[in-house]
Amino acid sequence: MPGTPRKKATIAGPRRKKTTPKATPLELERMQAIIVASLEDDKAEDVVAIDLAGRASFADRMVIATGLADRQISAMAIHLNEKLVEAGFKKTRTEGAGGTDWVLIDAGDIIIHLFKPESRTLYALEKMWGSELDEAEAED
Q: Which structural domains are found in the chain, ordered by start?
């Protein structure tokens, strides 16, 4: 194949990252139990877990919870990360922990959304990803 190594690399496209293996169902249940317990310990409201298996490529589950103040949401994110690391799970990636209405925590196979009440209503992730949507599509 003619061309420079740089051209060949450009044509080949980006290198694929090595993917980490998916968690087993038991590991997912254990991780979700730790997440929900941590959020409940921090007085999160309306904690909801949604199964995304087969519906999303970015995660197998989603947990959504409401906090009433920026400090509470920030503390929930910090405590959650600490508890997952203590339990042997990898460190999470957090977006928006600097005092916003929405904090996203990527724990690998489970994504956690921490909202203030107004933001949770505005984004309505339960409606977007909930089982009610699947049932409505099946009826059409």
A: 23-139 (3.30.460.10)
